[in-house]
Amino acid sequence: IAVECEEEGGGFYIGKITAVDKTFLRMLTFDPAGRWSDEEDTLMYDDITRISFGDHYSKTFYKYMR
Q: What pTM was estimated for this model as a whole?
């Protein structure tokens, strides 16, 4: 899954969802080199501007995961 938070201070997150709540979701992300993060990111629904499932970008990076 790819999640974008386009507001100031937001970012682009790519990885897998690890938890879902009423106000947020948690993700374990990976970088372009295929390394998983040590910690999960918590994203508030109000900050999320776009979610993509199975897009080309995600599939390409996931293919090279370590």
A: 0.79
